[in-house]
Design brief:
Blueprint: E1 7-12, H1 18-31, E2 36-41, H2 54-59, E3 63-65, H3 85-88, E4 93-98, H4 101-105, E5 120-126, H5 136-150, E6 156-159, H6 169-186, E7 190-196, H7 197-200, E8 210-214
Parallel strand pairs: 1-4, 1-5, 2-3, 2-4, 5-6, 6-7, 7-8
Amino acid sequence: MLNDKRLRFIVGHYGSGKTEFSINYAVKLAKMGKKVALADLDVVNLYFRSREKKELLEQLGIKVISSSINASAVDIPAISAEVVVPMQDTSYDGVIDVGGDPAGARTLGRYKDYLVEGNYDMFFVLNANRPETQTAEKAIEYLRKIEDTARAKVTGIVNNTHMLKSTTVEDVLKGQKLAQKVSKITNIPIRYVAAIEDVAKELPYNLEGEIFPMTLYMREDWMI
């Protein structure tokens, strides 16, 4: 994480787990003593939203920037002007959770002036259990569509292959094989191998990419 760029844009397919990854990433930065801003640019999937955990995240010292509609139950896609704060204020480590799919990545177009190559990271969260990204060909097609729409390049792959709380080591390793194929073809490195904490500690240490243990902040205890 220390070698990542100050601005990290998190993209991926709907249901890939990018919001969970974004929140965990922001929390880890905050625990390292960083000044962190988490911006929710997801105007596509209005169900699992990082802004719903705003109170918890702010208790950890994280600045949460989300919809300009100040009501978590109001499903109106709106982006706060504050989104540019972590882009302009270099004192922040910024994590920007971008809407799933190429349509969601379109919101990045308006911030193209801040997407200067070499000054940001854009992580593609890959879940091999999603039908639309379960082969290297499909995943790469999806990745390229997001790049074209966002007008920015993906700099790293995150293997986040999961079955929610039922995730096994085998699930993650299956996703790792897919991530390796995508990485080899695109020449984009695998940056992280994300998994719930109990699974992460059982993963082989020699995997390509940094093992990234996660807490399921977006799944309530009653959810599967």
